[in-house]
Write a structure and sequence with these properties.
Rossmann fold, six-stranded parallel β-sheet, alpha/beta, DNA Primase, Chain A, 34 helices, seven-stranded parallel β-sheet
Length: 1034
């Protein structure tokens, strides 16, 4: 068991802890501050340590901790997870403390820390730990047991927790204390000197202070460097910040976590970085080489190398960008007209242009006007212009827009597309879908087998032929000049009713529409591919023994190779050793389709008649069978591998678990070509805001890719919040998740809901003709938020349902939660389907992406570096980007920032760590942006000054008046979503002075949002009892 756990240690970490926040070399870290570390490479692989809790161990100990099991239960779980044995269920896990209690624990710890500090005495000058480290006490204290007492404070000098250090160097923090963002200070208060040095440990800071005299901030661990540095930068924008790194270089690992954390902190705040020249910290440097060397290294601190922004800033104004867009499309259309006229057609292929265009610049409308202008002279040979779109509903909008320009356009729908009527909202375009599916099962053309066919002078016709939507649209298509269809149509036979395509315009990304088998259901069993019983037929349904022999021989070679092949993708070496050639495989691909006789299906047959004929050409249900089309696809993939001399990555050998047991099978995934008649020999214009050459080139190899048309957006304000809990695990854990994770998710959803409410209140009344605030996120997250209730002026839409939608151009603000990010395995699966070629593992590993540094583009001309996910394989990285960054770009584009003016600005809040091609005005950490209890109170429409009244009105936030009083020591809000606390930002707010009845009660003030609390006095009396004073301030 232990060997298995060590072998699968990275997988176990991902299973128990989720995605790490940092992956540096052989060490991974979790928690927002990186306090939990695990070694995944080197001699210490399999070990973990929680620097905050002071505990660690191996795999079983981690299972114990995360599941709340005893050792035996954890071991049983590990064996089941490894598949070693089945044991009885583990005992129920203990219920972990709910994060909702964190605030109360922190409050208690804050009071205890203050008391412990007050009780401690000045430290003795000869304290053994300080003497050994060679540093002065610097106003430290010690308790009665002789332990050093180090207070951790905030920027307002409030003590939040303490660290004890024994004489032998053993360190421990106060249980329940809040360490994140808090620090120990040595020297004068911050802001009294032009610079400050931030380091990890107190002793490190003391050594630096002794050598330099500079103010010191000790963050107490590497994971806290960045939160502390960020808070200091927010309070003191002009302060010169030096981050002193611990040099954690060790011979048995590539990673240097201390240097990495310090570098990230310095980059985040635009600070400088100082690094000891040898492994160790600055205390080690002082003890080894002396204070002069420390002073020299601090003085020589330099800014980390700052890369250029990941995405350069646009140079064109909106007007210039629109003019450039129109010019490029008009030039292309002129080339199209020349092609239509036949000038040079024998020498030059039809023009094909891929044009990336900023969201909202109007690419679709510009293309529509250009198409209308060339239609004045008509199309050669009566052809059609085809526009392919992501969805049919977008086509309906285009039909109306073309009609306004005097152009006849229609939306072509497939047989399974909806065709609702008032009486039948579930109606489909084809009124006999069962007949259609029967024809497809035996690979017969639906039009001839189901709809209408004249044979031997007899007309066979479907009884629904004259009333079904599919047939009805044919006349409309023949009369239209422009046909709009879904992307998926391009990968199916072009209907004859559409006629000849003279121009194909592809709007938005279409690459996923051509992938087949990516759902994992394109499976062929080895038994179904056996050469035994194979028989091919000619067009008259007669056995063709000559070609049957060819297919039997090809199958024999294939079957022999597969029976001895290891699980996984089929190697080209095995294919060559089998004696198969690319030519043989291509011939076999064609012959597979001849295994299925024509069943003679005719339009008008009832279900029973169709079944009789189908059963005559298909084998019995219990007999192994390889559907001819799927088998043909297999041979095509194998031929491609042999031609290209690479493994057949689109063909995977595996054990399929069926009702009959384990069956050795092949799983296929491949890219279908654009079908004949859509794009071959036809000019093609591809317009997309997030266009990727790597994903278009496989379909259209002759495409010319133009530079993107991008515009500045000066009236869009973007704030990016880092480290926000917006992942699926953080907000919507599965039912089987631990109690602690579900409780944490509830707290996170409460915080997110509060941010939405605060933003909605701040933006109230600023939207035009619709909601004030648009929230975009994962569907499950939004469903939870809807259930809990959202403000009336908020609209929500989930990722993957955004492209082409233009209904939120008037919102005043947007809040974007998280991102869409598939696993590396999913991305690699799509990449293999695209090319049938093996994919380089992500970052050299197979379990998660590699890490790359990218720089945010800041409004002040600076940059801020963020670590980001990156796949080592270029195609896989393009797929990852198109699913993650591209979807976020589409999300931001719903606000139509290019159309904003000084009178209609747009405010965007990005709660994601992804670097995007947008200019960021403000970067905040989640600790800074997270709503406090006072903010949450404000979401209810009230701000109470009195601590006791807060506790009585909101006991879920403040269980006692003392807790509410402690909260008032802090800032009114630690969040930039201020609304009700600033009356100038809330039109409907009023301030009142009130006094509850009773002895000792005094007048106190409150502010109310009248849009939420219509009768403030009644609201207060319902919670506090009668009032003897009530005055509303004018």
């Amino acid at each position: 068991m232990r060997a298995g756990l060590h072998e699968r240690w990275p997988d176990l970490l991902l299973n128990l802890l989720g995605k790490p926040v940092s992956r540096m070399g052989g060490e991974w870290r979790w928690n927002r501050r990186g306090s939990l570390s695990a070694v995944v490479a080197g001699q210490r692989a399999g070990q973990w340590f929680d620097h905050e809790a002071g505990t660690g161990g191996g795999p079983v100990e981690l299972i114990q901790r995360e599941r709340g099991d005893d050792w035996q239960a954890a071991a049983d779980w590990a064996r089941r997870w490894l598949g070693l044995e089945r044991t009885a269920p583990s005992p129920p896990r203990r219920k972990d403390p709910e994060p909702a209690a964190d605030d109360a624990r922190h409050s208690r710890a804050r009071i205890a820390a203050r008391t412990l500090w007050d009780m401690a005495a000045p430290v003795a000058a000869d304290h053994p730990y300080l003497r050994r480290k060679g540093v002065a006490p610097h106003d430290l204290r010690q308790d009665s047991a002789g332990r050093l007492v180090i207070p951790l404070i905030d920027l307002d000098e409030t003590i939040h927790t303490i660290q004890w250090i024994d004489g032998d160097g053993t360190k421990r923090f106060l249980k329940g204390g809040a360490k994140a963002g808090h620090f120990a200070r040595i020297g004068p208060p911050l802001g009294t000197a032009p610079r400050v040095v931030i380091c990890e440990g107190w002793v490190t800071g003391a050594s630096i202070h002794d050598a330099t005299g500079l103010p010191i901030v000790a963050a107490m661990d590497a994971g806290n460097l960045r939160p502390v540095a960020t808070r200091i930068r927010q309070r003191y924008p002009a302060l010169d910040i030096i981050v002193a790194a611990d040099n954690d270089l060790k011979p048995d690992r590539d990673a240097n976590p201390g240097l990495a954390a310090a570098t990230h902190a310095a980059e985040a705040v635009g600070g400088r970085l100082a690094v000891p020249p040898l492994p160790g910290d600055f205390n080690d440097l002082a003890l080894g080489l002396g204070a002069d060397e420390v002073r020299h290294r601090i003085a020589a601190a330099t800014a980390p190398s700052t890369p250029a922004p990941a995405y350069p800033a646009p140079t064109l104004s909106v007007a210039e960008a629109r003019a450039a867009l129109e010019e490029r499309i008009n030039v292309f259309m002129a080339e199209v007209v020349t092609c239509w006229q036949g000038v040079g057609i024998d020498l030059n292929p039809p023009p094909q242009l891929a044009l990336p265009v900023d969201v909202g610049l109007g690419k679709t409308s510009v293309a529509r006007r250009a198409i209308t202008s060339v239609l004045v002279d008509g199309l050669p040979g009566g052809g059609k212009i085809v526009i392919a779109l992501p969805r049919h509903d977008l086509g309906c909008e285009q039909v109306a827009a073309f009609a306004a320009l005097g152009v006849a356009a229609m939306v072509w729908r497939g047989r399974t597309a909806p065709d609702p009527t008032p009486d039948d909202p579930e109606r489909l375009m084809c009124l006999d879908p069962a007949a259609q599916f029967d024809a497809l099962e035996v690979e017969q053309p639906v039009e001839q087998a189901v709809c209408k066919l004249k044979r031997k002078g007899t007309l066979h016709i479907c009884p629904h032929y004259h009333v079904c939507g599919y047939q009805r649209q044919k006349a409309e298509a023949q009369a239209a000049s422009v046909i709009l269809c879904a992307h998926d149509s391009l990968f199916h036979q072009k209907p004859a009713a559409i006629g000849t395509a003279r121009l194909l315009v592809i709007d938005e990304a279409f690459w996923q529409a051509g992938l087949r088998g990516i759902d994992g259901r394109a499976v062929l069993s080895l038994d179904g591919l056996s050469p035994a019983g194979v028989l091919c037929y000619d067009v008259l349904n007669r056995p063709d023994w000559d070609v049957t022999a060819d297919l039997v021989e090809a199958r024999r070679k294939l079957h022999c190779m597969l029976t001895t092949h290891d699980k996984g993708m089929i190697t080209v070496a095995a294919l060559r050793a089998s004696g198969l050639s690319a030519k043989t495989c291509r011939i076999a691909s064609g012959l597979e389709r001849r295994r299925l006789r024509n069943p003679g299906l005719l339009p008008g047959m009832n279900a029973g008649q169709r079944m009789d004929r189908i059963h005559k050409v298909l084998p019995p249900a219990d007999e192994p069978w390889a559907p001819p089309g799927r088998a043909a696809a297999l041979w095509t993939l194998l031929a491609d591998a042999l031609d290209g001399d690479h493994d057949a990555a689109g063909v995977t050998l595996f054990d399929d678990q069926t009702k009959s047991g384990s069956v050795r099978s092949l799983r296929l995934a491949w890219r279908a070509p654009l079908r004949e008649g859509w794009a071959d020999g036809v000019p093609v214009l591809h317009l997309d805001a997030t266009l990727s050459e790597e994903l278009v080139r496989p379909y259209l190899p002759d495409m010319v890719f133009a530079p993107p048309v991008l515009a500045r957006q000066p009236h869009v304000i973007v704030r990016q919040v880092l480290d926000a809990p917006t992942s699926a695990k953080a907000l919507c854990p599965p039912e089987a998740a631990r109690d602690r994770d579900r409780a944490a998710a509830e707290t996170h959803r409460r915080d997110i809901a509060a941010i939405i409410a605060l933003r909605a209140a701040a933006l109230r009344g600023r939207g035009r003709d619709g909601p004030d605030l648009l929230v975009i996120g994962q569907k499950d997250t939004l469903d939870h938020l809807r259930t809990s209730g959202l403000p009336a002026n908020v609209d929500v839409v989930h990722f993957n349902a955004l492209s082409g939608l233009d209904r939120w151009g008037g919102v005043a603000g947007m809040l974007i939660l998280g991102r869409t990010l598939p696993s590396p395995a999913a991305v690699e699966h799509l990449a293999r389907a695209m090319t049938n070629r093996p994919v380089e593992a992500a970052g050299g590993r197979s379990w998660w992406y590699g890490e790359s540094k990218r720089a945010i583009r800041l409004a002040d001309g600076g940059t801020q570096i963020l670590p980001g996910d990156h796949h080592a394989d270029p195609l896989a990285e393009a797929i990852r980007w198109s699913i993650c960054e591209a979807e976020l770009i589409q999300a931001i584009g719903r606000g139509r920032g290019v159309n904003r003016t000084s009178e209609t600005p747009l405010e965007v809040d990005l709660l994601t760590d992804v670097v995007l091609p947008v200019t960021i005005d403000t970067v905040l950490s989640w600790d800074e942006a997270r709503p406090g209890r006072t903010d949450i109170m404000a979401t209810h429409g009230v701000m109470l000054d009195n601590a006791a009244d807060r506790a009585r009105c909101f006991p879920d936030l403040w269980p006692t008046p003392e807790a509410a009083k402690q909260d008032r020591w802090r800032r009114v809000t630690n969040c930039y979503y201020r609304n009700i606390s600033n009356s100038e930002m809330l039109r409907s707010s009023v301030t009142a002075t009130y006094q509850p009845a009773g002895a000792g009660q005094k007048p106190r003030r409150a502010m109310f949002d009248l849009d939420m609390i219509k009768d403030p006095k009644a609201w207060l009396e319902q919670r506090l009892g009668p009032l003897v004073r009530w005055d509303v301030e004018e």
